[in-house]
Amino acid sequence: MAYTKRFDGRAFDETRPIKAELGVVENADGSALFAFGDTVAIAAVYGPRQLFPQHLQNPQKALLRFYYDMLSFSVKERKKPGPSRRSLEISDVATQALEPALMLEKFQNCVIDVYAQVLQANASTRTACINAASLALAQAGLPMKDLVVSVSVGKIGESLVVDLTKEEEDYQEGGKKAATDIAIAMLGKTKHISLLQLDGAIKPDELFKAIEMAKKAAESIYQAQIKTLKEISKKWV
Amino acid sequence: MGVIETSKIMRNTIIGLLRNGKRLDERKLDEFREIEIIPDISKNAEGSCKVKIGKTVVMAGVKIDIGEPFPDSPDEGILVVNAELLPLSYAGFEPGPPGIDAIELARAVDRGIRESGFIDLKKLCIEEGKKVYSIFIDIYSINHDGNLVDASFLASVIALKRSFLPKIEKAYDDYRVVYGEKTKNPLPLQKPPFLCSIYKVADNFFLDANLVEEKVSDARLSVAFTDNTIHAMQKNGSDVLSTDELKVAVELAKKGIQQIKKKAEKFL
């Protein structure tokens, strides 16, 4: 049977309900929670601060380090604590996804650490972490060229969808995997892509259609991020 | 907030206040900060809980799996407690495998829960000598402002209380967990234990240290009770305790536990 109606009844181009909150970790210089429905992530920023060991320092710009991990009870089958190959790879690509938005040259020799944790997972966890990190970096007051917005898109059966759930990620037709999962991050204003990961099977023209859907969804997430940041700045005035 | 570095001046200020029964944040020596308990924070955990003590925030979650029993207890379930001091929660925590502080925290929590008999491990046997339930408690610091031990212990106890056994399937001669499907069977639990830590600075004793107080303290004594019985104790720090001081600490712990109990009651 074709995938004509989504498991949770959403429209194909609709994300799950978005939740964004700032200042969830008081010790951090900036922090945020971001949720796509049941996928909940928090991120905390520490820095810019001095970087040790000294040989890692770059006299031209700050080093950005993003750490992605999941609480062991955030998933159905317990995840062994500590980094895995998967989390290290995500940390690496997400660091590069955030870098273009930051003005790292302003903080020579320093490090900016961003720690993201998935509290509850129902797919699209890296995108939620990147959105939380982007908000946390902004709340930390770091000079930024733009916010980074992230969303997943994909092809389930023959349908293109936005913001996949675990159930959709595992979708099968005729006993075979029939889901393509694409994680995308882009700069809020220009919609230039800073992270792109795809697995599955998709034709190029479908991919470009999916990316257009991602851009549209990204715009509404971008507006939600801006709204959240404005609200807190009002609170402080 | 960066790494807390304490000076001699700060230490002397704190000691001066404590001598007069006062503290930096105007609490009494036997007074907890505001305790807040938020259960069921994760849908994928068998049970979970967030505990806030002042600005300290800790999350604990229970996952249940099937494992093989230890040879010396073939008819008992397995309990594993793990704690991670996340670098997200404090500038002084670094990424990497759990350090000694995280291990000590996990073991202090483990002993209090295990020795109190809170979990009836005998009822978690599926097939003697072959298959038993394994209970994993994972503790994460989310914001560190001192006294992570008390927060972690309380969060773990409530998370256990909110846990339901997962559905299991028998296929041929093996059992496996059907992930994501919970039963309506709660964990076999008995009287809940409570843990309170007493901190010592010079010759002053108080409970629920915040981060600055914890940094200047010379010793910590954690005591786990069920009602009037002590089930686990852990002294940490290089200062010594006289017998009289130990008595003071135990009495103080009882007072602290009354405050914790009051907040926890409705979840137990």
Global mean pLDDT of chain A? 96
Taking pLDDT < 50 over at least 5 consecutive residues as the criterion, the unreliable ranges of chain B are none
Largest beta-sheet characterization of chain B: 6 strands, mixed
Helical residue percent of chain B?
Answer: 25-40%
Based on helices, strands and strand pairing, what is the structural class of chain A?
alpha+beta
Kindly report the spatial arrangement of strands forming the biggest sheet of chain A: 1-2-3-5-4
- CATH top level label of chain A: Alpha Beta
Of all chain pairs, the largest interface belongs to: A-B, 31 and 37 residues
Mean pLDDT across residues of chain B: 96
Structural class of chain B: alpha+beta
Q: How far is the first residue's CA from the last residue's CA of chain B?
A: 35 Å
The name of the CATH architecture of chain A is 2-Layer Sandwich
Order of helices and strands of chain A: EEEEHEHEEHEEEEH
What's the domain count of chain A? Answer: 1
Work out the number of β strands of chain A.
11
SSE diagram, text form:
The complex is a heterodimer of chains A (237) and B (268).
Chain A lengths: L17 E5 L7 E7 L2 E12 L12 E8 L14 H14 L11 E11 L4 H15 L8 E9 L2 E4 L3 H4 L2 E2 L2 E2 L1 E9 L5 E7 L4 H33 L1
Parallel strand pairs in A: 4-5
Antiparallel strand pairs in A: 1-2, 2-3, 3-5, 6-7, 6-10, 8-9, 10-11
Helix pairs in contact in A: 1-2
Chain B lengths: L7 H12 L15 E5 L7 E7 L2 E12 L10 E7 L15 H16 L9 E3 L3 E13 L4 H14 L2 E8 L2 E13 L7 E8 L2 E4 L3 H6 L2 E8 L2 E8 L6 H22 L4
Parallel strand pairs in B: 4-6
Antiparallel strand pairs in B: 1-2, 2-3, 3-6, 5-6, 7-8, 9-10, 9-11, 11-12
Helix pairs in contact in B: 2-3
Structural features, described:
- The complex is a heterodimer of chains A (237) and B (268).
- With 237 residues, chain A is α+β, with helices and mostly antiparallel strands.
- Chain A has a single domain (18-236), classed as 2-Layer Sandwich (Ribosomal Protein S5, domain 2).
- Chain A has four helices and eleven strands.
- Chain A has helices spanning 85-98, 125-139, 166-169, 204-236, and strands at 18-22, 30-36, 39-50, 63-70, 110-120, 148-156, 159-162, 172-173, 176-177, 179-187, 193-199.
- In chain A, the strands form three sheets. Chain A has a five-stranded mixed β-sheet with strand order 1-2-3-5-4. A four-stranded antiparallel β-sheet of chain A has the order 7-6-10-11. Chain A has a two-stranded antiparallel ribbon with strand order 8-9.
- Chain A is globular.
- Chain B is of the alpha+beta class and 268 residues long.
- Chain B is 26% helix and 36% strand.
- Chain B contains five helices and twelve strands.
- Chain B has helices at 8-19, 100-115, 148-161, 211-216, 243-264; strands spanning 35-39, 47-53, 56-67, 78-84, 125-127, 131-143, 164-171, 174-186, 194-201, 204-207, 219-226, 229-236.
- In chain B, the strands form three sheets. In chain B, strands 1, 2, 3, 4, 5 and 6 form a six-stranded mixed β-sheet that branches. A four-stranded antiparallel β-sheet of chain B has the order 10-9-11-12, with helices on both faces.
- The longest helix of chain B has 22 residues, at 243-264.
- Chain B is elongated.
- Chain A binds chain B through residues 24-28, 38, 42-44, 46, 49, 67, 71-78, 81-83, 113, 115-117, 119-122, and chain B through 1-2, 41-46, 48, 55, 57, 59, 61-63, 65, 82, 84, 86-91, 95, 97-98, 136, 138, 140, 142-145, 177, 179-180.
